[in-house]
Automatic annotation (TrEMBL):
This is CBS domain-containing protein. Keywords: Amino-acid biosynthesis, CBS domain, Methionine biosynthesis. Residues 7-62, 77-133, 138-197, 228-279 form the CBS domain. PANTHER family: CBS DOMAIN-CONTAINING PROTEIN CBSX3, MITOCHONDRIAL (PTHR43080), OS02G0818000 PROTEIN (PTHR43080:SF29). One of its GO terms (biological process) is methionine biosynthetic process. It comes from the Archaea. It comes from Methanofollis fontis. SMART domains: CBS. CDD domains: CBS_pair_AcuB_like (cd04584). PROSITE patterns: CBS.
Amino acid sequence: MMAEDVMSSPVQVVTPEDTAAHARNLMIKHKVSRILVMEGDRLAGILTKKDLVYRLRQTEPIWRRRPIDRIPVSILMTESPVTIGPETPVREIAALMLDRMVSGLPVVNEGSVIGIVTKSDILRSEAAGALKIPVTGLMEEPVTISRYHSLDHIIDLLSERDEKLIVVNNDGTLAGIITETNLAFFEYANETGGIPEKDIKMLRKEASGGRKSYRYVTEVSAIAEDVMTHPVLTAPPETTAAEAVGLMINHHINSVVIARGSEILGIVKRDNILQEVAK
């Protein structure tokens, strides 16, 4: 199979002058994670949900102080993105995504953009659907955080590790999951443009009986439980890779938590599937 067999077309586009808020709204409306930036017929760049999460924090202070509806796409986009041709094999596409650490590749034919291949398109390919390896041979050890961790801490973890974060309760059981999508589409600016503050209450020490002791932490921005997705879809360790792919496609998710009962064993992500497809 080649790019033209699996690509998505037509693609959603914006101009460099459009606002980041407009681009984000298009992503939400059309349920996509990236938008091509076009100057006329020329591909100028690409804007992803990851850019919305991280790059705004890395821009000059003058831009960080502006609301998202006043920030141009050109400030946050990746210029001159990697492209592929319509006859590029799916195996090469998967390998290229992993090597360049990108989740979407525009398909260009004779200078014109004709579509885009995303990791989700790879998941829907015959190559991914035919994987019979058990998920235990693919899964990774999850990165876990407390449901009380701050938004800043979450963003730092995701930017450093490029991971999905498993949110756990005080007893270690599964509470939720946080991905880049949760952060990119989460509204956390208050009416004055700042980060809202809240009081949170945490259990100091768990006890089987008697009075519980709590400690209070004030002036904390949004926390994990505010942005996480829950409940979380899980699968048993006997699941095959192809079955995990089916779960991701049917539930519009990009990872599956592997668990036995209340015990979290690992997590299988799209990249784990792409690694198999690229072999």
